[in-house]
Amino acid sequence: MRRAMARAAVGDDDYGEDPTVNELQHLAARIMGTEDALFVPTATMANLIAVMCHCQRRGAQLLLGREAHLHVYEHGGVAQVAGVHFQALPDLPDGTFDLDQLELTIREAHGSRYHPRPELICLENTHSSAGGRALPLAYLQQVRLLADRYGLQVHMDGARLMNAAVAQGVEPAQITQHCDSVSLCFSKVYSHGAPWARWKRHKLGPAFVQGHGAWGHAPSLPAGTGEDPREGCRQLRITSFLGLQGLGAPAGAVLAGRREFVAEAWRVRKLLGGGMRQAGVLAAAARLGLEHAETTLRRDHDNARRFAQGVQELNSPLCSVNLTAVETNIVLVGVKGDWPSPAELCERMQAVSEEEVAETGHAVSVLLFPWSARSLRAVWHWNISTHDTELAKNKLDFVARKCQEKLALGLGTSPWSTGGD
Ligand SMILES: Cc1ncc(COP(=O)(O)O)c(C=O)c1O
């Protein structure tokens, strides 16, 4: 990927003259079955642009899920920047809306002089907070019919659209046909061949615990020591704060739709400062990610399922997984009981100890994300192999056993007994 970036032909994309960006846009539009597509720096910007293009009247209202990325993690840009009012509906466990409730909400406001005007429905596919669930095609069709009945537009936050397509065994265009616009993200974090993933382990160095995100994808060695304290430890970053990672490019997203929509999106991108110049270096990485999406994501999905099955087989009183909910590259692990909490379990998955090496023969640090009061989240991406997945599963087995031993001794729940052992 880095070679492709280095070799990319570039031009000034703000003048439409970057050949690599243009190729990427054509490819993305073809894959998504849309007339056109626009390269933008992030999926957050793609979503905001979409809302700004669809909701141009003051008092316009956007309907979206309470747990949607757009609602929770994008700083309310649709309100702050676009001046759009949003109505957040409860998401069902599979990431869908209750269609009756959706219709009721629209009908209440439809034609009313007293309500904001509902103009846009935003869907998220796959649905991140639901654990990477792919929205059923029949559901998408019903949302489309509903939107048409009341004259609304449909935008899909398809940051992980390709995961949905791979999971459902359909062309992405079969999914996007029900939408007026769709965003797709090419990042995040780990590009193909990131150096840390290649570190070979042969001895256990001093234990390390770093905060999430403390290591970038090209970590530098500590100055002066000549030695990496992390040497000897296999670190598996099966995590992501918000977690897409799938296509493995360092940055970038596209927003796709009809030709006039994309022309308007170009203007809004400019307004938001998202017009880039020699963006071909980024587009080259994105294109590679897109071209390999099917193989990469299928492997991620298989590994995620393998891990989830492993968690189920552990049959541990501390954690569980709902296998039917594992459809793509995300696994939500339920954490049971009062101790350890998801955050504590994540810390233990990350920490390495002499005891671990003595018992398992490996020093493995797994970065997971405490997702809710009762769950943690694991996200698969390009850099996590099937072997890594096996190591992560074994690590969870080890950690769960150690926690149970502590609990049996009555130590676990005491606040001062959770630290370094
Ligand atoms: C569903 C969803 N939409 C949008 C985004 C935003 O992506 P970006 O970080 O490129 O702005 C994310 C990021 O994780 C996401 O999960």
UniProtKB/TrEMBL annotation:
Name this polypeptide is given: Aromatic amino acid beta-eliminating lyase/threonine aldolase domain-containing protein
GO BP field: glycine biosynthetic process; L-threonine catabolic process
GO molecular-function term, one example from the UniProt record: L-allo-threonine aldolase activity
Superkingdom classification of source: Eukaryota
Family the UniProt entry places it in: Belongs to the threonine aldolase family.
PANTHER family: L-THREONINE ALDOLASE, L-THREONINE ALDOLASE-RELATED
Cofactor section: pyridoxal 5'-phosphate
Key words, A-Z: Lyase, Pyridoxal phosphate
